[in-house]
Design brief:
This protein has 330 residues and is an alpha+beta fold. It has eleven helices and eleven strands. A six-stranded antiparallel sheet has the order 3-4-2-1-7-6. Strands 5-8-11 form a three-stranded antiparallel sheet. A two-stranded antiparallel sheet has the order 9-10.
């Protein structure tokens, strides 16, 4: 079933299934800079080993090596493991660089008057369903949200911004996390063994009198953040409204659904003359859920005005780049 048909006949959000987390397994244990005292086989040492493994997800061999190196200090052992994983990730990232990343996820996060969309790509759909990959997307969304909220608010109108791959990679990882998003990307590559890219991000902040509608197609909830949704398509729609009424959230979701399904290129005006199926102006397009009317005709009685939107489709930038390369080759 095509995206358009699935949006029309199945407007409810679907729930996906996350793959089980993958433990980082290396062919050889990580080397140590110095050899600390060997851990004894006492019950307390085994309990410490189990606790470190549960907390970090790394193999028994490397957890034991970490505890030996750090004289049994759990906190230092955890830091040592992350440092070694970072080195492993950067090494693996260099080897995998250049491999195609057509799969991945769109992440949508809303907090208060701000909303962000992020795209993180990987090589296979199998990895995109892995919990560790989804946690990476979650971290990228949190880092983008922290960046958005650190910017000065506009008192009279909304603000919108975009971050490319390079800008996104340099952002801090967000609350209670050390390092940059690029560091977390390297860790994920080291654990999952695929090339990955922090592709792009967009953010919107609105003052009083505005509302951000949102929608994610093929959606599944984040494992630890209830207000983060993951999927293959995502949209934010900025609306101006004179009052906050009870069905505003539903209207915003339907507008986002329309943007995902109809892929408009501009908002347009209520005065525009519709051009049928080739129409790219949002308000003049046939309304996705009722093609007998235009989106503008649906919006007018709802008490909102559509002023802007953002649409992300996972992998679309990669496909556009390949199309340009093919055209140049011809």
């Amino acid at each position: 079933m095509s995206l358009l048909r699935s949006l029309r006949f199945f407007p409810a959000v679907c729930t996906g299934r996350s793959a089980r987390p993958v433990l980082l397994q290396l062919s050889q244990p990580w080397p140590t800079r110095h050899a600390g005292p060997r851990l004894s086989s006492s019950a307390s040492s085994k309990e410490l080993l189990m606790k470190l493994r549960r907390k970090t997800g790394y193999s028994f061999v490397n957890c034991k090596k970490a505890l030996e190196t750090c004289d049994g200090d759990l906190k230092q052992a955890e830091a040592w493991l992350h440092k070694q994983a970072q080195k492993e990730g950067w090494s693996k990232a260099a080897k995998l660089h250049g491999r195609k990343t057509k799969e991945g996820l769109i992440g949508l996060l809303q907090e208060g008057n701000a909303a962000v969309l992020v795209e993180v790509n990987c090589e296979t759909d199998f990895v995109s369903r892995n919990l560790k990959f989804q946690q990476l997307v979650q971290q990228v969304a949190l880092g983008t949200m922290s960046h958005c909220q650190s910017l000065k608010d506009q008192q009279s109108t909304y603000t919108k911004g975009f971050l490319n791959s390079s800008e996104l990679s340099q952002l801090a990882a967000g609350p209670n996390r050390e390092g940059s998003l690029k560091d977390h990307l390297a860790l994920a590559i080291g654990k999952l063994g695929e090339n990955m890219i922090l592709k792009r991000a967009a953010w919107v902040k609105v003052p009083s009198g505005f509302y951000v509608g949102s929608y994610v197609h093929g959606a599944l909830q984040s494992p630890s953040l209830n207000n983060l949704v993951l999927g293959k398509y995502g949209a934010l729609v900025v609306c101006e409204t004179c009052e906050q009424h009870k069905n505003l959230q539903d209207v915003g979701r339907r507008l986002g659904q329309h943007v995902v399904g109809m892929a408009p290129l501009s908002v347009g005006s209520l005065d525009d003359e519709p051009r049928g199926e080739t129409e790219t102006r949002m308000l003049s397009q046939p309304y996705l859920l009722d093609p007998s009317i235009t989106l503008g005709q649906y919006v007018q009685p709802q008490g909102v005005s559509v002023v802007d939107f953002v649409r992300f489709e996972c992998g679309e930038a990669e496909e556009a780049g390949e199309a340009e390369e093919a055209a140049e080759a011809e």
